[in-house]
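User: Structure tokens for this complex, please. No commentary.
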Amino acid sequence: MRRPTLRQLASELDLSITTVSRALAGYSDVAHDTRQRIHQAAKKAGYVPNSAGKSLVTGQTGFIGLLLPLSDRPQIDPFFSEFLAGLGEGLQARARDCFLATVGPAQSELEVLQHVVESGRADGMVLTRIGESDERVDYLNERGFPFITHGRTLNDAPSRCWVDTDGETAFATAFEELYSAGHRRFGLISIEEPMSFRHFRETGLMQAIQQRNDATVSLAIGRTPRFDPAARARAASTMLTSHTRPTAILALTDEIGLSILEQAAALRIDVPSELSVIGFDNLPASEWVRPTLTTFDQRVRETALELGHRLVDLIDGTSGSGQRPAQHLLDATLIRRGSHGPAPGVRHEYTTGN
Amino acid sequence: MRRPTLRQLASELDLSITTVSRALAGYSDVAHDTRQRIHQAAKKAGYVPNSAGKSLVTGQTGFIGLLLPLSDRPQIDPFFSEFLAGLGEGLQARARDCFLATVGPAQSELEVLQHVVESGRADGMVLTRIGESDERVDYLNERGFPFITHGRTLNDAPSRCWVDTDGETAFATAFEELYSAGHRRFGLISIEEPMSFRHFRETGLMQAIQQRNDATVSLAIGRTPRFDPAARARAASTMLTSHTRPTAILALTDEIGLSILEQAAALRIDVPSELSVIGFDNLPASEWVRPTLTTFDQRVRETALELGHRLVDLIDGTSGSGQRPAQHLLDATLIRRGSHGPAPGVRHEYTTGN
DNA sequence: AGCAGTATCCGAAACGTTTAGGAAGACTAA
DNA sequence: TTAGTCTTCCTAAACGTTTCGGATACTGCT
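Assistant:
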């Protein structure tokens, strides 16, 4: 039982293909009762336009591509399902579907991206995990292919579409929160990879420190490969056993934050009385651990929904009319939980050292 | 700058479209040096066949659809990214792409499924979250559309393709492990939804209990809606405060297991000395909590990879030659962690009651 | 020279849709 | 009556690909 086509419908109704097509598409040059007959027959036959045919003539596929690297590390992205849910919701509202361009371990993302773009499988692209500079962005820019990114590079033109979470403000806020609570010896455990979110979060912290202009504030920085749990634990442990252990540590991600909590427990350092930790991402696990992890929520779902809408605007050329700016920065909201608190009293400063 | 087409390539090379097409497709009726000229020109022009054109004539899209419900609950599926990674990897190896058919809150999955199938956007479908009986499965069966499921219904024909984790054996194993450790008063916190994995896990437990044929074994059963954290907590707390509190509780999922650990901590019931808990899923959080949660790992990624390969086999008709059976049951592996241990001594049985 | 066989290429149709550019008839206004 | 304007419908081309069924020229053989 093959799917009904326009031709079949037309011959059944003794009409031309054109008329059936135009009736279904809602054009006004079809008589009212003809239109009704057509709609009835279409519904009865279960007619759904063949997307390949349509795509061939319109040049649009109705697909949005999402570049998905399949590294061998276990978790792709902790909030990936959230992201997908938001994106899917946004795209569905605009009658598009999402397709996953998977990047195998042996391929480069750029390679896959080029193939997708050139084969015309997608009308637009969504890119995540943006680096401080990003060859994928450069390629699509040059190619003139519609795309949007979750995150920005360090040198985007003002017209380049992106949606990002304001990590800069978030980390400044975190610093202020902790500074006000009396903390002066700070730590930051960051990642080694030059992702742009690292840049912004770090910058936010640095600027906030500078702005305080308080010589008693110190900052120790540790780095770890992003996806190596053992290295993460080492970085945390190193900072926690240092001679001048910080009283407050900012973790670039929750995974790092959880690792710090774990090492602190192992070293019998009480959180939050002896040590404050603030993470970023609001992973599910950050609610399950004890103490619970204070962190920032990115509202990933919302972000991705926005991303979808904006990309379709871009493709349809709707964004030219200027209702929304091309770039959109969303606030991260601080989720105050159990892993931060007032700094330990100055008296204790030298007794807690290792 | 539009993408190069076969026609352009052909006229450039002073050849017919046919020849260029056949050379690129690897047919043998093209002279060696002609073939080389064509390949060179194609590479130079960056030619990639237009997928709509190809799809129109071959009737294949190269896409596999994955039905993705966008419920309003925050996390779609804890291991969703894992699943996607595996599926993507499998499909990529077979030169297919994965597309996401998102189901909005207002739509039914069946409705979306029908639309995808009838519009010819996909060559095959992957279904997850299978119910004990499932209208989506019925529809696709009847429609004769290629599909595979992660999970099985309670009445699948032997030829119906699926890959599933053996929850039956897993729960029997868990029971045996605990029984051998001296536990006799068991609890099970299950879900309310008639998902088929619930059926198999419960059945596995029941059968294991029956097989022991030990009158001193008791089983208390609690149920909670799958995605309601508050109800989950209530169910856990109810079982933990019952007059005859179990010494070992099996949680149908890790989310339930984590909730039990949380409630136990709140009630000052020590795990594992007073209570053993075993979950299922191996969520990331189960490693972060203290005590860590003993649970089963489903090897989601591996499962999904298998799923992808088998579906493509099915589509290509390769599975007819009978190298692999249509149905495949994978073992879940017990990850022994900190939340289970020997049963508390009989002496304590009546002192721990609430 | 005549013939079969082979290597190499091509014309044309087909897939299902959209849409530009009419055409035919009915109505309106003078 | 006649020209003009709507309303309603249709013909035909186009999108880019694959593939069936030849066509042509060359080879080797008798």
